[in-house]
Amino acid sequence: MECCSWATAGTLLLASLLLSSRTARSEEDRDTLWDAWGSWSECSRTCGGGASYSLRRCLSSKSCEGRNIRYRTCSNVDCPPEAGDFRAQQCSAHNDVKYQGQFYEWLPVSNDPDNPCSLKCQAKGTTLVVELAPKVLDGTRCYTESLDMCISGLCQIVGCDHQLGSTVKEDNCGVCNGDGSTCRLVRGQYKSQLSANKPEDTVVAVPYGSRHVRLVLKGPDHLHLETKTLQGVKGENSLSSTGSFLVDNSSVDFQKFPDKEILRISGPLSADFTVKVRYAGAADSAVQFIFYQPIIHRWRETDFFPCSASCGGGYQLTSAECYDLRSSRVVADQYCHYYPENIKPKPKLQECNLDPCPASDGYKQIMPYDLYHPLPRWESTPWTACSSSCGGGIQSRTVSCVEEDIQGHISPVEEWKCMYTPKMPIVQPCNIFDCPKWLAQEWSPCTVTCGQGLRYRVVLCIDHRGMHTGGCSPKTKPHIKEECIVPTPCYKPKEKLPVEAKLPWYKQAQELEEGAMVSEEPSFIPEAWSACSVTCGVGSQVRPVKCQVLLSFSQSVADLPIDECEGPKPASQRACYSGPCSGEAAESNPEETELIYGGLQDFDELYDWEYEGFTECSESCGGGVQEAVVTCLNKQTREIADETLCVTSRRPPQLLKACNLEPCPPRWEIGKWSSCSLTCGVGLQTRDVFCSHLLSRETNETVILADELCHKPKPILVQACNRFDCPPSWYPTEWQQVRVCT
Asked: Does residue 397 lie in a domain region?
């Protein structure tokens, strides 16, 4: 059934020519020898966007410059669903007219790149395509996905404002000439971990009204859709084959390949869509998705609150409430705070009830608030101490609305009186940096060449900046010394005690490990250990341990009472071993001692390993690593010597430190080129380009930013491909009649 009517261009033109009334001619018309424009004709359509025209007559005996006809759009309202496609209506009008002696049911052929404004139709059930009219009726869309319309056989540009010649377009949110602020880009990736026990999982929920939905699945699993309308009606589509189809009045384009699936929905979605993935093979699948989600909760300004005074001058304010566009009701503010793009409007303030108070009512007359009566204001208490010294904590405070009278007395009042300015936050995160943690380096070689010995490693307490600091828990500290066994058998009796390391780098590692840095939180700071109390055997070492704090405003260190520092106090005394005494020497084997140390004595006196600076940082930004450079030095000349002169078994372990911790600037993330649109004769290929920011180098997590934040020129999105001529091919022409004489 046809719900929209149209008038032919010829009928409208004839009616317009018969009109005798003319509007008054303007000065411009007289100057250009044109008659005044006639009235506008009836619209060529009653809905869906049509065209109307107006004519004027040339009053000169010669030709006039300019056109004698002008057009405008009209009836820019959506047609009811049962009206059908306007081009399809024009094709079906020829169903009762014979073509080459036969009746056909004609279907429209749309998006003709050569002549989009001719009426080409295809006979249903056949490959027969015929041009049934050289021109479609005015107001017919040139292309199915465009507002451009055919007028007098020519395709005219139409903007989203439905004006001829307008280049205004919709933004990604579907708003004509919008700035993209009514929706947000959602982009992510899902990796399936399905199995026979878990055959299905949810990839992403795409809400009602979303646009430009695109999902790409790579792997053996399959996509399928579940929908739910605003009325609560549920549906499901298994997406079993390639094609375009309607799902809850939303057009879905689905492509199925052996190794991937692609789902596109231009939108806006007419229901809530849930995209799921179903298990189909042992290998995992990955799904990338991107769409524009409408911001359905928006701030709405309220009316003015009651006046703060009944007379003598007061004030009243507006506020803002969070409004759900789908359900048309007010909801909690947290729904609007969910969208960072939502900015709560500031309350408006105005004076009210400025008439003086009557002397008989007992009120004292006051001057207008803006002169002598201060406005109510927010007042806050100091922040509480952070709930955690590191790793992320919370601190809070109390915020209240107060009012000061003319005498300077401050009293609490209702919060709405302060709503002309935003309320200060009452909770905030604090100390969000990671807690210090132990970092163990590689083990040193064993201190013996046979049998049982010891090996050592450097264990540092590293803070969130990669700097050596204090504050790590002693209970979780990895051990720095352990026994080791060299599988080579010893042909002499073993020493009574394991041989202690005598290497200079071990002392350096001890100093690094023992040190601690003063911070703005009171903490125990140990100083260096004293020398061992004995020259041989087992003795003791002592060191001072102070409670200190860094005063940030003066950058000086202050000593505090011991009870001001929390946590266990580091030890101030420990045992030490200075080697065997003379009485014990007889129990050890001098020959084995000479075997271990004697051969190395000359080199130990002259050459040894030392740390000499660090390598360049492995990354220019976002956090990298530097490695300490180990060199063999001549102790006397301090010059670098050949590494073969230093004992290989005494080479210190690898030492690393963090560097270039500042975040990386935004950069362009460039996707791969698509396959060429043509195999020959110059085609096109495209790729995705996004402005991204690297959040974490460890997880490679990125966030998408606006293009203008990437300073370098944006890489090209489209390029030509297959720039070679297509090979010659046969093209059959129509059969011709040949007369044969016999």
From this structure: no
Q: What angle do CA 273, 275, 279 make, to 5 degrees?
A: 155
Dist. CA 240–CA 536, nearest whole Å: 84
Would the pTM count as exceeding 0.85?
no
Answer yes or no: are the C-beta atoms of 137 and 6 closer than 8 Å: yes
287 lies in the same domain as 304: no
**CA-to-CA distance for 592 and 115, rounded, in angstroms?**
101
Cβ proximity of 317 and 303 under 8 Å:
no
> Residue 500: pLDDT above 60?
no
Omega of the bond prior to 268 within 30 degrees of 0, cis? yes
DSSP state of 468: B
Rounded distance between C-alpha atoms, residue 230 and residue 296, angstroms = 13
What pLDDT digit, counting tens, does each position of 81-115 carry? 777 788 998 999 999 888 888 899 999 998 888 89
Q: Are residues 187 and 219 in the same domain?
A: yes
User: Are 181 and 290 contained in the same domain?
Assistant: yes
Distance CA 631, CA 641 (A): 8
Q: Of 599 and 119, which is predicted with more confidence?
A: 119
Same domain, 136 and 74: yes
Could you read off the pLDDT of 371-396 as tens digits, one per residue? 345 678 889 999 998 988 888 888 99
Same domain, 686 and 712: yes
H or E segment and range at residue 585: helix 582-585
Find out whether 120 and 132 touch, Cβ atoms under 8 Å: yes
Is the domain of 245 the same as that of 285? yes
Contact 106, 97 (CB under 8 A): no
- Tens digit of each residue's pLDDT (9 = 90 or more) over 39-88: 999 998 888 888 899 999 888 877 888 888 899 999 888 888 777 788 99
Phi-psi group of 133: left, alpha or beta (phi > 0 → left; psi -120 to 50 → alpha; rest → beta): beta
Q: Say if 420 falls within a structural domain.
A: no
Among candidate residues 638, 656, 674, the one where a domain is terminated: 656
Q: What contacts 24+ positions apart, CB below 8 Å, involve 26-30?
A: 29/56
CATH for 181:
2.60.120.830
Domain interval for residue 310: 298-352
Q: What is the DSSP annotation of 113-182?
A: SS-TTSEEEEETTS--EEEEESSPPTTEESSTT---EEETTEEE-B-TT--BT----B-TTS-BT--STT
290 and 302 in a single domain? The answer is no
| E strand or H helix that includes residue 441 | none
- Other residues' Cβ atoms within 10 Å of the Cβ of residue 548: 18
Predicted local distance difference test score (pLDDT) of residue 479? 86
Residue 705 falls inside a structural domain: yes
Domain match, 188 and 258 both: yes
> Which of these, 202, 343, 186, lies nearest to 267 by C-alpha position?
186
Tokens of 665: 């600037």
Task: For the chain, count helices (H), then strands (E).
Answer: 9, 45
The residue assigned the tokens 């859709």 is: 225
**Are 684 and 721 within 8 A, CB to CB?**
yes
Domain annotation covers residue 326: yes
**Based on the structure, what is the number of domains in the chain?**
5
For residue 202, the one-letter residue type is T
